[in-house]
């Protein structure tokens, strides 16, 4: 495994939250209640990392993205938003939906993390977030807020308080915004597959499915919001039921229409994982094997829906949140042969 130390602890995700007048069905008798809506300002993908300290990476929302948010308000005990309230921002059908409500002219704290389904969550008034049943692997980047402000220029680490949120002039007016700076809770792994040149001279290997899994896929953590905001993972062993993440495959070969292994190697999809030494992650690859095409262009399928497993996907000890790891997987047959009707089992070697 090769580790690329890409610094983006301070290079946070930039999220703009707009205040739009909207009636909350839960408070039909309260005309002062409004919703908070997220508005992402740039088209850069979240995988674009390594920006300079003090700047902010951008994020392009994808359908189904969901940010869990908490507001804390203590000015008026009679207010329906008094204390800690929960809500979510969900991106669907090309726009954001919101269940995060507040009153106009209110001053409040706002905290958040994503994706919302990464764990069960409870928030305390002292700014401590408890994450139970925390999934140790994810197909989406796992993040938590480190600052909140009404403008980008006002963002300051550890400051989550918003003063005097006021109702916009109209429902389409997005001039008033809240910015959320978010940092990465997990590390990222990107898989690269290649095969030995000797084997590829006589066979083609088609990859049909790649999964990263854990027999016990859950842990726990606490996030303490402040300056700095800190994350503490449980020291207990992972527990609970199994968990797996499907890895995206690269585009198929233009000629064969198959995802074939090459000697040079090719990047597959990424996954995100708890930065904890000894994490019990397993890699499972489903594949087909073909003979090389003959003079007439025919290739014979010799093995179908085979599986190869590597039970030690993450082998380094010094894992940190925000690191990007390129994991090279070399596929080797357990023996080489000249001409045989059957192929040997494949071995996945992590470099």
Binned, the helix content reads under 10%
How many DSSP helices? Answer: 1
Q: Give the percentage of residues in beta strands.
A: over 45%
Radius of gyration: 24 Å
Give the total of beta strands.
25
H/E element sequence: EEEEEEEEEEEEEEEEHEEEEEEEEE
- The tally of domains stands at 2
Name the shape in a single word.
elongated
Largest sheet composition: 11 strands, mixed
Given as residue ranges, the uncertain stretches (5+ residues, pLDDT < 50) are 1-33, 39-54, 335-344
> What's the pLDDT, averaged over the residues?
76
Output the structural class: mainly beta
Distance between the termini: 5 Å
Q: Secondary-structure map with pairings?
A:
Elements: E1 2-4, E2 12-20, E3 33-39, E4 56-57, E5 66-73, E6 83-92, E7 95-98, E8 101-103, E9 106-114, E10 120-123, E11 128-135, E12 137-138, E13 143-149, E14 161-165, E15 177-184, E16 187-195, H1 197-200, E17 203-214, E18 218-224, E19 230-233, E20 243-246, E21 266-273, E22 281-291, E23 301-310, E24 324-333, E25 346-350
Parallel strand pairs: 2-4, 16-24
Antiparallel strand pairs: 1-24, 2-3, 2-15, 3-8, 5-6, 5-9, 6-7, 9-13, 9-14, 10-11, 11-18, 12-21, 13-15, 16-21, 17-20, 17-22, 18-19, 22-23, 24-25
Structure description:
The chain has one helix at 197-200; strands spanning 2-4, 12-20, 33-39, 56-57, 66-73, 83-92, 95-98, 101-103, 106-114, 120-123, 128-135, 137-138, 143-149, 161-165, 177-184, 187-195, 203-214, 218-224, 230-233, 243-246, 266-273, 281-291, 301-310, 324-333, 346-350. The relative contact order is 0.17. It starts with a strand and ends with a strand. It is elongated and about 80 Å long. The strands form 4 sheets. Strands 2, 3, 4, 5, 6, 7, 8, 9, 13, 14 and 15 form an 11-stranded mixed β-sheet that branches. Strands 1, 12, 16, 21, 24 and 25 form a 6-stranded mixed β-sheet that branches. Mean pLDDT is 76; it is low at 1-33, 39-54 and 335-344. It folds into 2 domains: 2-184, no CATH class; 187-215 and 244-350. It has 351 residues and is mostly beta strands. It is built from 1 helix and 25 strands.
């Amino acid at each position: 495994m090769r580790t690329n130390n890409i610094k983006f602890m301070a290079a946070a995700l930039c999220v703009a939250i707009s205040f739009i007048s909207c009636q909350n069905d839960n408070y039909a008798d309260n005309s002062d209640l409004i919703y908070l809506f997220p508005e992402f300002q740039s088209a850069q993908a979240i995988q674009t990392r390594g920006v300079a300290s003090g700047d902010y990476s951008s994020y392009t929302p994808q359908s189904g993205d969901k940010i869990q948010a908490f507001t804390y308000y203590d000015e008026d005990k009679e207010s329906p938003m008094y204390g800690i309230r929960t809500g979510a921002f969900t991106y669907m059908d090309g726009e954001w939906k919101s269940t995060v409500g507040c009153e106009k002219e209110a001053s409040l704290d706002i905290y958040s993390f994503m994706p919302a389904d990464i764990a069960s969550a409870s928030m305390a008034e002292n700014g401590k977030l408890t994450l139970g049943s925390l999934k140790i692997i994810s197909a989406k980047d796992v993040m938590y807020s480190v600052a909140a402000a009404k403008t980008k220029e006002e963002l300051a680490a550890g400051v989550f308080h918003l003063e005097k949120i006021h109702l916009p002039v109209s429902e389409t007016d997005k001039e008033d915004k809240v910015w959320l700076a978010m940092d990465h809770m997990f590390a990222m792994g990107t898989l690269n597959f290649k095969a030995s040149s000797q084997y590829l001279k006589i066979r083609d290997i088609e990859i049909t499915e790649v999964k990263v899994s854990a027999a016990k896929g859950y842990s726990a953590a606490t996030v303490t919001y402040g300056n700095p905001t800190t994350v503490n993972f449980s020291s207990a062993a992972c527990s609970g039921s199994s968990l797996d993440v499907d890895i995206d495959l690269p585009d198929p070969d233009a000629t064969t229409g198959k995802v074939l292994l090459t000697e040079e190697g090719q990047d597959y999809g990424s996954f995100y994982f708890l930065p904890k030494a000894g994490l019990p992650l397993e890699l499972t690859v489903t594949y087909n094997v073909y003979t090389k095409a003959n003079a007439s262009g025919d290739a014979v399928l010799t093995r179908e829906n085979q599986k190869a497993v590597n039970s030690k996907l993450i082998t380094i000890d010094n894992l940190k949140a925000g690191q990007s790891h390129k994991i090279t997987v070399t596929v080797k047959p357990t023996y080489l042969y000249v001409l045989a009707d059957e192929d040997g089992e494949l071995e996945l070697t992590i470099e």
